[in-house]
């Protein structure tokens, strides 16, 4: 187990997403209104890269003609077949029993704390003034 | 589908060694006037003045439904230059042809050329589409093969185009949509089958096509999901029409493939037609043998979008019933319902079956793949 810096917070502002690699794992990182989510990038259906999927909300209907939209931005739709995954749990919306993509816990740490360690930043230098997204693996 | 890891690993390993023929790749125009350089001035002026015809009764779009995704494409298939998915050969090479180690890919242009109305205009647009495929794709990458795009409704002009291209090694098949104005087995379309047989060119029926009628026998569905489903019914009807009207009796060497129309419907169609034929064959004297025999002799199917039954042994059963020798792999790149060669069709297969499905059947079926 170790903490890995995957990106500067400023790189993934609200409404955006990024593919990062940590110890050989491809992780799709999403910023939904300031809340960060990380899930395994590979769609468990046929392997599309979820980091290139659109983030959407949940549209449900109790009866014909009535629609309810909730949880905007909290699901990612695979860029290929549009399977939807809940960013909070990694579960598939249409088949949660069989399909899920692994969720990762992300945290935001100030650069000041990271410089002290025991963090691993392989690809970029750290500025003490900035905030960074960290995953524990 | 809960797939044990070892099955996926094994299939990935085998697929890496397999050579692959992709029977359905969609090239697209990089701008609205991309066919203009291949059209006579008369038709350029016509299009600039009056615009083009759509395949359906509703104005304003090529189709009556909004599509599931922009340009019906995978969201990751837009080239970096921002042009439509399928229009940039260099990006297609990197994302698709190289990535999946594709030996040959069959182009299936769906560019609005083969309209059922104003067939003089359609024929000019089909000729332009065929020149464009060679110029922009097949002459630049020998892995890609073009389709002789024709409009079925004017068989005379269609045959002219087939004759124009038949000796050209850039072309692997004749391409029709699965929807025509009348059932495709009728006599008015026979010259197309005659020309196909004479030139030893197979015919690919890509699902959809230039019919102006509603896709469902009861009219226009409300939703795209329903439209997406009823599209496949046209393939059932066209297969039955060709068999019952005697197309395969009159032109026994004709090879047709139903592309992107599913395949789970094939065994019950064969059972049902055979059952009817045993009682009513005197009505269709040109259908001399049980319909299932023509299916086994003249008709192939592409796999995408592969059925995904809950139990993967059910998928294998379908292939066994239809015959592994009748099935050919296709991805539908760059469309959203793309099938990944290493991840679709999750079922146990022998190496020989896998080779047939991903390579050998298509090598034997298509023209000029060598």
List the helices and strands and how they pair.
The complex is a heterodimer of chains A (137) and B (370).
Chain A (H helix, E strand, L loop, with lengths): L2 E6 L8 E6 L2 E8 L2 E6 L13 E10 L2 E12 L6 E3 L16 E2 L1 E5 H5 L3 E2 L10 E6 L1
Parallel strand pairs in A: 1-10
Antiparallel strand pairs in A: 1-11, 2-3, 3-4, 4-8, 5-6, 6-7, 9-11
Chain B lengths: L4 H13 L2 E6 L15 H10 L38 H10 L3 E6 L11 H20 L5 E6 L5 H11 L5 E7 L12 H9 L4 E4 L17 H21 L2 H4 L5 E4 L6 H15 L10 H8 E4 L9 H11 L4 E2 L22 H15 L5
Parallel strand pairs in B: 1-2, 2-3, 3-4, 4-5, 5-6, 6-7, 7-8
Helix pairs in contact in B: 5-6
Describe the structure.
The complex is a heterodimer of chains A (137) and B (370). Chain A is built from one helix and eleven strands. The model of chain A has no long low-confidence stretch (mean pLDDT 90). In chain A, the strands form three sheets. A four-stranded mixed beta sheet of chain A has the order 9-11-1-10. Chain A has a four-stranded antiparallel beta sheet with strand order 2-3-4-8, with no helix packed on it. Chain A has a three-stranded antiparallel beta sheet with strand order 5-6-7, with no helix packed on it. Chain A is mainly beta and 137 residues long. Chain B is an alpha/beta fold and 370 residues long. Chain B has a single domain (14-365), classed as TIM Barrel, CATH 3.20.20.140. Chain B is built from twelve helices and eight strands. Chain B has an eight-stranded parallel beta sheet. In chain B, α5 (155-165) packs parallel to α6. Mean pLDDT of chain B is 92; it is low at 1-11. The A-B interface holds A 45-49, 52-54, 77, 79-82, 98 and B 1-2, 68-69, 74-76, 336-340, 342-344.
Number of helices of chain A: 1
N- and C-termini, Cα separation of chain B: 37 Å
What's the main sheet of chain A like? 4 strands, mixed
Give me the CATH fold name of chain A. Answer: Rieske Iron-sulfur Protein
Using the alpha-carbon principal axes, give the shape of chain A.
Answer: elongated
Question: Residue-averaged pLDDT of chain A, rounded?
Answer: 90
Largest interface: A-B, 14 and 15 residues
Number of domains of chain B: 1
Going across the biggest sheet of chain A, name each strand in turn. Answer: 9-11-1-10
CATH hierarchy class name of chain A: Mainly Beta
The CATH architecture name of chain B reads Alpha-Beta Barrel
Structural Rg of chain A: 16 Å
Low-confidence stretches of chain A: none
CATH architecture label name of chain A: 3-layer Sandwich
Low-confidence stretches of chain B: 1-11
Write the element-wise H/E pattern of chain B from the N-terminal end onward.
Answer: HEHHEHEHEHEHHEHHEHEH
Main sheet overview of chain B: 8 strands, parallel
Pfam family, one (chain B): Amidohydro_2
GO cellular component, one term (chain B): cytoplasm
GO molecular function, one term (chain B): carboxy-lyase activity
Protein name (chain B): Amidohydrolase-related domain-containing protein
């Amino acid at each position: 187990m170790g903490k890995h810096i995957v990106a500067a917070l400023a790189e993934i502002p609200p409404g955006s997403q990024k593919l990062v690699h940590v110890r050989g794992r491809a992780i799709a990182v999403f910023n939904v209104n300031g809340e960060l989510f990380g899930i395994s990038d590979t769609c468990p259906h046929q392997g599309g890269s979820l980091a290139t999927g659109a983030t959407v909300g949940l549209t449900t209907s109790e009866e014909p003609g009535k629609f309810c939209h909730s949880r905007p931005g909290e699901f990612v739709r695979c860029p290929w077949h549009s399977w939807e995954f809940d960013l909070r749990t990694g579960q598939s919306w249409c088949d949660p029993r069989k399909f899920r993509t692994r969720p990762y816990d992300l945290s935001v740490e100030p650069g000041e704390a990271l410089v002290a360690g025991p963090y691993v930043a392989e690809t970029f230098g750290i500025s003490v003034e900035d905030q960074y997204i960290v995953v524990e693996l | 589908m809960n797939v044990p890891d070892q099955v996926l690993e094994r299939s990935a390993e085998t697929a890496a060694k397999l050579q692959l023929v992709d029977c359905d790749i969609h090239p697209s125009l990089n701008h609205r006037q991309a066919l203009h350089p291949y059209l006579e001035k008369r038709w350029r002026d016509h299009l600039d003045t009056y615009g083009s015809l759509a395949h359906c009764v509703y104005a304003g779009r090529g189709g009556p439904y909004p599509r599931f995704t922009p340009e019906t494409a995978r969201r990751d298939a837009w080239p970096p230059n921002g042009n439509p998915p399928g229009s940039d050969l260099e990006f297609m090479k990197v994302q698709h042809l190289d990535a999946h180690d594709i030996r040959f890919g069959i182009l299936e242009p769906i560019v609005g050329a083969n309209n059922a109305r104003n067939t003089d205009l359609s024929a000019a647009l089909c000729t332009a589409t065929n020149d464009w495929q060679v110029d922009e794709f097949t002459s630049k990458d020998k892995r890609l093969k073009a389709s002789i795009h024709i409009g079925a409704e004017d068989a005379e002009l269609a045959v002219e185009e087939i004759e124009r291209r038949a000796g050209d090694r850039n072309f692997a098949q004749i391409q029709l949509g699965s929807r025509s104005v009348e059932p495709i087995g009728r006599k008015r379309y026979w010259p197309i089958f005659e020309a196909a047989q004479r030139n030893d060119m197979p015919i690919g029926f890509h699902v959809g096509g230039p019919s102006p009628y509603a896709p469902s026998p009861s009219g226009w569905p409300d939703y795209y999901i329903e439209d997406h489903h009823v599209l496949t019914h046209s393939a059932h009807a066209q297969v039955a029409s060709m068999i019952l009207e005697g197309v395969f009796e009159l032109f026994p060497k004709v090879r047709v493939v139903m592309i992107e129309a599913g395949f789970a419907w094939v065994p019950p169609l064969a059972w049902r037609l055979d059952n009817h034929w045993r009682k009513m064959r005197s009505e269709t004297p040109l259908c001399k043998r049980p319909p299932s025999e023509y299916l086994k002799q003249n008709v192939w199917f592409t796999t995408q979008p592969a059925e995904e039954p809950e139990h993967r042994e059910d998928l294998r059963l379908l292939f066994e019933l239809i015959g592994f020798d009748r099935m050919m792999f296709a991805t539908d790149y760059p469309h959203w319902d793309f099938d990944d060669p290493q991840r679709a069709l999750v079922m146990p297969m022998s190496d020989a079956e896998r080779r047939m499905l991903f390579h050998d059947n298509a090598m034997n079926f298509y023209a000029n793949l060598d």
